[in-house]
Design goal:
Length: 357
């Protein structure tokens, strides 16, 4: 199942509306077939693995990170392919989180006489499909808040300098993360201060995620770096009725998607409405990359599912630099949001602390 997970990750960020899935066929203790779901419209992981195994699949074991599907989508049901191949035992990482499907694939296999063991390595398999699961059960994308801060909790200096708080190794990790998400979201304050490109820059290239700028008054400079990219990724600006109509038109003519949202009670773009809309547009995962005010609002609105904070061994001192999440926070420690399944990783001298809400 560990190998099936490794294979599944090759499809991460590329399979929507489907989840990433990996599969391995094992016979007499040796792998005879491997596969993963590369993108929607292409065969599912099981089909690739069974094809590679050929006749060796008869009487063999199949390990698959997600319950095999039992419905006719763009491709035939995997349960049929598993039965036709003569697989004897199926090990399933996690049941399909789609309430309409969950357990259906396993039931079909069992009633046809196939031994099914589920779940296997469930925590890892569930984490892999967390964006798919959140999207299919709530209609909204899975949001990862990622930030780099100093030891004293600042994400920039009082003068607005933030390059670079984190180490090269941390930043390389962020580019790997960008490669696996559907969209990257920032506030207009970050665009005005840093003029980021938000592209994925990996030694092997990588895939650019779409860029979302939260900009209630449409202040984005028309020469902003993220508007001037020869990238296949889209740029989406989430704004409100405060945006000037002529600027909306000019940006739309350049291919920028400008979407209008209600104004939140606290001012700015209504983030819950934005999340529902992004979900409806098919976005399963969003990487929130700051800045302070957008992070604060996102936490208060409860749209964040996972947090990844890089802590660098730096001290800026003072209280003039922006903190990780601006605005009013929780009044008591008891009400503080605590992360679950916390993982700590070192990147050079930085420490990454991550976990789920
Ligand atoms: N170290 C890091 O990882 C990191 C990452 C990113 C940024 N930064 C730093 O963070 C600083 C920028 O932070 P910031 O707080 O000034 O800007 P920000 O959070 O990027 O953007 C905030 C702006 O977004 C707009 N907005 C629209 N709807 C909103 C909503 N519902 N909630 C919150 N904001 C909304 C508001 O302006 P309108 O009302 O006009 O739309 C608001 O002023 C920069 O210094 C940057 O270098 C650091």
């Amino acid at each position: 199942m560990g190998r099936a997970l490794e294979l599944a990750r090759r499809g991460e960020g590329r399979t929507r509306p489907n989840p990433p899935v990996g599969a391995v066929v094992v016979r007499d203790g040796a792998i005879v077939g491997e596969g993963f779901h590369p993108r929607a419209g292409e065969p599912h992981a099981e089909v690739f693995a069974l094809r590679e195994a050929g006749e060796a699949a008869r009487g063999a074991d199949l390990y698959v990170t997600l319950e095999p599907c039992c419905h006719h989508g763009r491709t035939g049901p995997c349960t049929e392919a598993v039965l036709a191949a003569g697989i004897a035992r199926v090990f399933v990482g996690v049941l399909d989180p789609n309430p309409k499907v969950s357990g259906g694939g396993v039931a079909i296999l069992r009633s046809a006489g196939v031994a099914v063991e589920a779940p296997v390595l469930e925590t890892e398999c569930r984490r892999l499909i967390a964006p798919f699961a959140k999207h299919i059960t709530t209609g909204a994308p899975y949001v990862i808040l990622k930030s780099a801060m100093t030891l004293d909790g600042r994400i920039a200096s009082g003068a607005g300098d933030s390059r670079w708080i984190s180490s090269e190794a941390s930043r390389a990790h962020v580019h790997r993360l960008r490669d696996t998400v559907d969209a990257i979201m920032v506030g207009i304050g970050t665009v005005l201060q840093d003029d980021p490109r938000l592209t994925t820059r990996l030694p092997e290239g990588g895939r650019d995620a779409d860029r979302i700028v939260v900009d209630a008054r449409l202040q984005i400079p028309e020469d902003a770096a993220l508007l001037d990219l020869h990238s296949s990724a889209a740029t989406v600006i989430a704004t409100t009725s405060h945006a000037p109509a002529e600027k909306i038109e000019r940006l739309r003519r350049r291919g920028v998607q400008v979407l209008e949202f209600p104004i939140a009670k606290a001012g700015g773009v209504d983030l819950c409405a934005l999340m529902q809309r992004l979900g409806a547009l098919g976005y399963q995962s969003v990487l929130l990359e700051g800045g302070a005010r957008l992070n604060g609002a996102a936490l208060r609105e409860g749209i964040v599912d996972r947090v990844q904070i890089f802590i660098a061994p730096l001290l800026l001192g003072g209280d003039d630099g922006p903190s990780l999440a601006a605005g009013t926070g929780m009044p008591t420690i008891a009400e503080a949001k605590r992360l679950k399944d916390v993982r700590v990783t070192r990147f050079g001298d930085d420490t990454l602390i991550e976990g789920d809400f």
